């Protein structure tokens, strides 16, 4: 998608490093504040560009994405908004897949010779190793990366590629050279983790089946698509996958993600559910969660969001080993 905001692009007559009158669409809405929000009600008029993206996300099983911005130099990962249950009392908001998101952000930033320094925009804050949790930078309601992760099952990070808000056209070759290696390496990460199909005993692929990793449940559960396919981005390690069909007991299976993907492919793990006969009770309607603040009813505190030595060591490991 070359631009989510063509109106804004056309509105800029003269590029400016510190201000862009192309931030909003022709209706004067900031589109990166226009999506449903999982943490608080975002009662704004949904714009046609936003609605088009939301519909587009339903047409494909997107797994990994990024959105490109100007005005800073950093790879920012979810969540952008949050509640105490996601760690806001500690000035951050982390997802159940925080290890994967930190790895993805570092994968991009570490291959950009300027971004990885973390302090090249003199008028901006410093970002260690060129990455940041979105909420730690500043809270943002209605952003696209949180929406994609929660409602579209797509891991998305935000890439701020230039200290200058709107660079001049002749700078494009410079930015391409700075970001080419990062972009290619980031795209490869779609092969992290495990993928496969879920079947009944008759070999029929099962749509809308919940496929989640134990202790890594999403507030809107990840489900198989219409072909019974699932995709879970995971770092190397051992995991228990919980497969849930309405009206049946959960089915558990263990997977071990190897250190290196094979032939640019995630680990392939098809799941044959031990159920007799055709599973015709699975709903075929769109199983998407309601576009409401899903996190609003969670407990106000979670042990998982406390800063700890383990998280610190994991971060250091990915920074210095990867």
Automatic annotation (TrEMBL):
The active site is at 160 (proton donor/acceptor). One of its GO terms (molecular function) is carboxypeptidase activity. Residues 1-190 form the Peptidase M14 domain. Keywords: Carboxypeptidase, Glycoprotein, Hydrolase, Metal-binding, Metalloprotease, Protease, Zinc. Gene3D superfamilies: Carboxypeptidase-like, regulatory domain, Zn peptidases. The keyword Nucleotidyltransferase does not apply. Belongs to the peptidase M14 family. This is Carboxypeptidase M isoform X4. The lineage of its organism: Eukaryota, Metazoa, Chordata, Craniata, Vertebrata.
């Amino acid at each position: 998608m070359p631009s989510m905001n063509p109106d804004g692009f056309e509105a800029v007559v003269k590029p400016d490093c510190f201000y862009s009158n192309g931030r909003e669409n022709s209706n004067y809405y900031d589109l990166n504040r226009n999506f449903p929000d999982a943490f608080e009600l975002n009662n704004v008029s949904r714009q046609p560009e936003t609605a088009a993206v939301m519909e587009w996300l339903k047409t494909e099983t997107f797994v990994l994405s990024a959105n490109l911005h100007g005005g800073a130099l950093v790879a920012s990962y979810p969540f952008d908004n949050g509640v105490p249950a996601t760690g806001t009392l500690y000035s951050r908001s982390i997802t159940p897949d925080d290890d994967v998101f930190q790895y993805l952000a570092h994968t991009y930033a570490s291959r950009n010779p300027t971004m990885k320094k973390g302090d090249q925009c003199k008028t901006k804050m410093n970002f260690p190793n060129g990455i940041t949790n979105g909420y730690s930078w500043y809270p943002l309601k209605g952003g696209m990366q949180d929406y994609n992760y929660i409602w579209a099952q797509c891991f998305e990070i935000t890439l701020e590629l230039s200290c200058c808000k709107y660079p001049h056209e002749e700078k494009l070759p410079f930015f391409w050279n700075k970001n080419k290696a990062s972009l290619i390496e980031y795209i490869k990460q779609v092969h992290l983790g495990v993928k496969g199909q879920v079947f009944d005993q008759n070999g029929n692929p099962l749509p809308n089946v919940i496929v989640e990793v134990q202790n890594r449940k999403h507030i809107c559960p990840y489900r198989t698509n219409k072909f019974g396919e699932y995709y879970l981005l995971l770092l190397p390690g051992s995991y228990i996958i919980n497969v849930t069909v309405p009206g049946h007991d959960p089915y558990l299976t263990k997977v071990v993600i190897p250190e290196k993907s094979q032939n640019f492919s995630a680990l392939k793990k098809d799941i044959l559910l031990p159920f007799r006969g055709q599973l015709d009770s699975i709903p075929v309607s769109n199983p998407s969660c309601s576009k409401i603040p899903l996190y609003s009813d969670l407990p106000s505190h979670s042990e998982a969001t406390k800063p700890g030595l383990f998280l610190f060591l994991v971060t250091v490991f990915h920074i210095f080993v990867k």
